[in-house]
Design a protein that fits this description.
The structure holds two protein chains of two kinds. Chain A is built from nine helices and ten strands. Chain A is an alpha/beta fold. Chain A has a domain of 168 residues: P-loop containing nucleotide triphosphate hydrolases (Rossmann fold, 3-Layer(aba) Sandwich). In chain A, strands 6-7-8-3-9-10 form a six-stranded mixed beta sheet, sandwiched between helices. In chain A, strands 2-1-4-5 form a four-stranded antiparallel beta sheet, with helices on one face. The longest helix of chain A has 18 residues. In chain B, helix 14 packs antiparallel against helix 21 and helix 21 runs parallel beside helix 24. Chain B is of the alpha+beta class. In chain B, 52% of the residues are buried. Classes of the chains: A alpha/beta, B alpha+beta. Chains A and B meet through helix 2 and helix 4 of A and helix 13, helix 22 and helix 25 of B.
């Protein structure tokens, strides 16, 4: 499984309409019989390269399930998901692990970092796991971008919540993945730190050509994205180009109806 | 609150089982030992009651010589006592018993049984009075002629011979062939306590075993209507001074109690290991409760927040401990009953034969096993319970439980306990006496506890240092393993401490044994100037007849030689440093041809002479002379099995390591002892003669005694080392249990840590850690903990060994030898054991579902 042809990075801005990842008629069912829940009910969508996509929706809409399935963390009941040309549904457990390690970056809401490792070790973790040497020039740039140069030797317990999330973003960027999935990355942060993190992600897309998919229910966060997908009851119900907080909030309000 | 406790118990069955396992194993060994003792005790009680069933009284000497090795020697009585016994009113029948050492050699020339360490081999006369003979003919017929022998059925089975075959008996006389006429049983048993027995006619027995004109004792059957007491009274009125009559009941009770004492030794020996196992188990329980309660901090805080008192929290934890303790002890008792069978074969492998019958579990055993198991569990849970009760309600709101830095008080207390332990240990070793074992054991325990208390203070830097190569060798998984091992110093050090105990004892025993071997080598190298040693392979009872030494003396190429015997006597010393007690003046005396002795050894004389000792002359080790207040020219009254003699001290010597405390000439031994059996024959080869050639000659001379080995000095050293190794292996096997329990502890700690680190593992899996990498992290953490514990143990073991050698240097243990290869093997095994301990926790960690893990609270 080669990653060279699909690697994106600075200066290799590909054609925008090309899809970094896509789902086709994705169905995910939990439980059986009376307790059956259709978390995804036939979702077909794509995530364009070098774009920042937000997945929005109320809790229970299936937005996290969609992300988990596209990111190779969970498997579909039926349908298919592709990362580049790779059909994730055909991969075995170990291949999925390697795919996540080599081709995907993650930023979670909380508990993003391994407490026993320093910031620097956390950032290079996926590459260390792969036994690859990180590209030091690129690492320096990433570290500078997120402003962590003087915090690299610290352990997570010695960092603030905002700094911890910046380390997580740096880790996601460091391995130059085809796509970064962020699951409520600002959910545990105050608004200033949150804005900082979202600003870094925006710059990663604009300046480094990084593809980012972010799950959030925060309209302000969605305002940083190029595009917003709206999920409800396991289906995509709407899409918004160049969203801003106000329009997203309006759209979200309608879910309550 | 009780409901909450029980719910918590039910919700964590696996945790419960793991904690319980540590108790189960310790209790199993303890109850196994007790059950074995019960079973064997019951077996012999029945046996003795049966074999004396027809006897009413026993006539015997009142003189008993205590032996330092426990087996008392009763003096023989004149054979003509029989006439006056038979003439006593109320006596229906009477018959003498004559017994002595007799080793059976099979038709193919092999000795029956294990002469070096097994059950004794003895011979006796076949009793013609049915009620008095404890043996019953099972096959064939009783001995009637001078060449007839009847052997116990077990010996015939072991030796692979039967009725009509010719066997040779090795006794104090020349080896002599006999025809097997019959096979006998002892009560229902094929052999008395595994001993090998040859039964011959009274005439033959007197010739082979007795000082001429004496018998060992006389059994009496009373006439109908005469009670045991009446016949004893009648006999007592007639018997001369120095001879007594006792009832069969009393004799049975004495035999039972003697056996009880012998069993008591094995019992204590095994119980020591059971206690070690339980102490290790206590560490595990303490650790498990500590970890589990730390993980339940929020739950406990919530209970406190909604109004549970500290007392209720403590009680809830202790109730959990009580339930674990009782359940585990019950299981342990059950396993112990089965274990007793295994212990029996373990002892059998070490040469201690115990007949098998059905298992007996006495109520006392059950009570002790359950009581001790439960108490240990409760005691181990007290500190964690108190700590749990101090969880403030506010902790419910905190997310992460942080382990506090070890306070200074911990270091102070730890060093205090450690110091107290060292004092106790050294005190116990140097003072001697009955309390010595207590001091040594208690001291060792305090040292273990002291190190365990100090552990959390140094575990983190120590583990980081120990694991420094890991990140280089194993990359990120190595880094993670090292940091995981270092992140909870208290947890890591307590887990390692449990392993430390077993390893320290293994290391100590290894060092002690190596030092003992090296010391023996040194003694032989430095003060044995002879060239060959004929070793009978026997020590306390038995040996080879003096015919061998006599023929060796005149063999060509032999410059000097002497048979070496050991006598037991009770000495009346002017001053005795030993505490008063029945065996306090029991002495072990070396007897040799003292003219030849000085040519073959260097006695290092300090006063008078050690050579050319005459009848009743004795040489004393100078340190013994000093403590006993003896000097050349003094006399020592000595009670031998053949009567009292007055020994004159004519010399003192320093070489106590080779010659022991007392040396007499064979002339004295011939006069004073019942048996004339050489334990060894020491030989110096003439100048110019080849040692190898003489050795081959002597092998031919010794051929009639298949139990005797003609060894050159290096072979002798090797055979001594081999005997050590046999005992060592038994001790290692028993200590192995403590090590296994410690490994269960490591597995337990890792499992709890994996549970605690679920989210972290989930995160790493999400960003691309493979399952095998997750397993490797757990595995290497386990190896680091195991190696840390082993290193601590080896350091302590080395210290124990050093102290022991210091304390025993005056008794011949002069060389401290560290068996580096053995210790390296222990280290490597510890690493492998760490891998094994990590198998299940690593598997579980590898199987964690990523989504559940990152989603879990």
């Amino acid at each position: 499984m080669t990653t060279i042809e699909s690697t994106t990075g600075p200066g290799t801005d590909p054609q925008p309409p090309v899809l970094a990842a896509r789902a086709f008629d994705a169905v995910k069912v939990y439980g059986t019989g009376d307790t059956e829940v259709r978390a995804l009910d036939g979702v077909t969508c794509g995530f364009e390269r070098a774009r920042f996509t937000a997945i929005m929706g109320p809790s229970g809409s299936g937005k996290s399930t969609l992300m988990h399935c596209v990111a190779g963390l969970d498997s579909l009941t039926s349908g298919s998901v592709f990362l580049g040309d790779t059909d994730l549904t055909t991969l075995r457990e170990r291949e999925l692990t390697e795919l996540r390690r080599d081709r995907i970056g993650f930023v979670f809401q909380a508990f993003n970092l391994v407490p026993t490792l320093t910031a620097a070790e956390n950032i290079s973790l996926p590459m260390d796991l792969a036994g690859r040497k990180p590209d030091s020039a690129w690492m320096d740039e990433v570290v500078r971008t997120v402003g962590l140069a003087d915090r690299l030797g610290h352990r997570p317990s010695e960092l603030s919540g905002g700094q911890q999330q910046r380390v997580a973003v740096a880790r996601a960027l460091a391995s130059q993945p085809e796509i970064i999935f962020a699951d409520e990355p600002t959910g545990n942060l105050d608004s200033r730190s949150g804005a900082e993190i979202l600003g870094f992600m925006r710059r990663a897309v604009d300046e480094l050509g990084q593809t980012i998919v972010m799950v959030t229910h925060d309209p302000v966060a969605a305002g940083y994205a190029d595009r917003a997908l709206f999920l409800a009851d396991g289906r995509i119900v709407d899409e918004m180009a160049a969203p801003n907080a106000e329009r997203v909030l309006d759209r979200m309000k309608r879910f309550g109806d | 609150m009780l409901t909450a406790t029980l719910r918590s118990l039910a919700a964590h069955k696996a945790r419960l089982a793991m904690t319980g396992l540590a108790v189960v194993l310790g209790v199993a060994l303890m109850s196994g030992t007790l059950v074995l003792t019960d079973t064997v005790g019951r077996t012999f009680d029945n046996l003795f009651s049966n074999v004396y069933a027809g006897t009413d009284a026993v006539v015997r000497s009142t003189e008993v010589v205590k032996s330092p090795f426990g087996q008392d020697q009763r003096a023989p009585i004149p054979a003509d006592t029989l006439a006056s016994v038979i003439a006593t009113p109320g006596v229906a029948e009477a018959e003498p018993t004559v017994t002595g050492f007799a080793q059976i050699i099979t038709p193919s020339g092999e000795p029956v049984g294990d002469p070096t360490g097994g059950a004794p081999s003895f011979g006796a006369n076949w009793g013609l009075v049915t009620g008095l003979n404890p043996f019953t003919i099972a096959e064939g017929e009783p001995p009637t002629g001078p060449d007839d022998v009847v052997v116990d059925r077990a010996s015939a089975t072991k030796g692979g011979f039967g009725i009509g075959d010719t066997v040779t008996l090795l006794t104090a006389q020349a080896p002599r062939p006999f025809t097997v006429r019959g096979l006998a049983t002892f009560g229902d048993s094929d052999s008395p306590a595994g001993a090998s027995v040859s039964l011959v006619t009274l005439d033959v027995a007197s010739e082979l075993f007795a000082v001429p004109g004496t018998v060992n004792e006389i059994g009496v059957v009373a006439t109908g209507g005469t009670s045991e007491d009446e016949v004893v009274a009648a006999l007592s009125a007639r018997l001369p001074a120095g001879i007594e009559a006792v009832t069969a009941a009393q004799r049975t009770a004495e035999d039972q109690s003697a056996l009880g004492q012998a069993l008591g030794f094995f019992n204590s020996f095994l119980l020591v290991f059971a206690v070690i196992a339980l102490v290790v188990g206590a560490f595990i329980i303490y650790n498990t409760f500590s970890i589990v309660l730390a993980q339940r901090t929020r739950e406990l805080a919530l209970l406190r927040a909604v109004g549970a008192t500290r007392r209720q929290v403590t009680l809830s934890v202790l109730t959990e401990a009580l339930a674990v303790g009782v359940l585990a002890s019950l299981v342990g008792l059950g396993i112990g009953a089965v274990t007793s069978i295994g212990l029996r074969s373990l002892l059998g492998a070490a040469g201690i034969d115990i007949p098998s019958t059905s298992i007996v579990v006495s109520p006392t055993t059950a009570a002790i096993a359950i009581g001790v198991g439960t108490m240990i569990t409760l005691a181990a849970a007290v500190f964690p319970a108190l700590r749990a009760s101090r969880v403030p309600p506010i902790a419910a709101l905190r997310t992460v439980a942080v382990e506090p830095k070890p306070p200074v008080i911990r270091i102070v207390v730890g060093i205090g306990i450690l110091g107290l332990g060292v004092l106790n240990l050294v005190g116990g070793l140097t003072q001697g006496g009955d309390t010595a074992l207590f001091g040594v054991g208690g001291g060792a325990l305090l040292i273990f506890i002291g190190v365990a208390v100090l552990g959390p203070a140094f575990a983190r830097p120590a583990v980081r240092l120990l694991a420094w190569p890991l990140p280089r060798l194993r990359g990120i998984t190595g880094t993670l393993a090292r940091e995981n091992a270092a992140r909870n110093p208290r947890r890591t050090s307590t887990t390692a401490a449990a392993l430390m105990i077993g390893v320290a004892l293994v290391g100590f025993i290894a060092i002690f044994a190596a030092s003992a071997k090296a010391s023996i080598d040194q003694i032989i190298d430095e003060s044995f100037t002879g060239d060959l040693i004929i070793d009978s392979g026997q020590f306390v009872a038995g040996g080879v007849s003096t015919d061998l030494a006599a023929s060796v003396k005149t063999a060509p190429g032999v410059a000097a030689s002497t048979g070496v015997r050991f006598l037991t006597a009770n000495l009346d010393l002017p001053e005795s440093s030993a505490p008063a007690g029945p065996a306090s003046n029991a002495a072990f005396i070396l007897a040799a041809d003292t003219t030849a002795l000085v040519d073959i050894t260097d006695p290092q004389p300090t006063a008078g002479r050690v050579s050319d000792l005459g009848l009743n002359e004795v040489a004393v080790a100078s340190s013994v002379a000093e403590s006993a207040g003896l000097a050349v020219g003094d006399t020592v009254p000595a009670q031998f099995p053949t009567g009292e003699r007055t020994l004159s001290v004519v010399g003192t010597f320093d070489n106590r390591a080779l010659l022991g405390d007392w040396v007499v000439d064979l002339a004295t031994a011939d006069a004073a002892a019942v048996d004339r059996l050489d334990v060894q024959v020491w030989v110096k080869v003439a100048d110019g003669a080849s040692v190898t050639v003489v050795q081959e000659e002597l092998k031919v001379l010794a051929a009639p005694w298949p139990t005797a080995d003609v060894l050159d000095l290096s072979e002798f050293k090797a055979s001594q080392a081999e005997q050590f190794d046999q005992i060592l292996n038994l001790v290692y096997a028993l200590l192995g249990l403590a090590v296994i329990i410690a490994l269960v502890g490591i597995a337990n700690t890792l499992a709890l840590s994996v549970y605690e680190r679920t989210r972290e593992i989930g995160l790493m899996r999400a960003v691309g850690m493979e399952r095998r990498q997750v397993r490797a992290v757990v595995r290497w953490e386990s190896v680091v903990i195991a190696v840390f514990g082993t290193l601590l143990g080896l350091v302590i073991g080395l210290f124990f060994g050093w102290v022991m050698v210091l304390a025993l240097s005056s008794q011949g243990l002069g060389v401290l030898s560290v068996p580096v290869p053995t210790l390296v093997v222990v280290m490597v095994l510890a690493g492998l054991a760490g891998v094994v301990a990590a198998l299940l926790p690593a598997r579980r960690a590898g199987r964690l579902d990523v989504l559940t893990a990152i989603g879990s609270e």
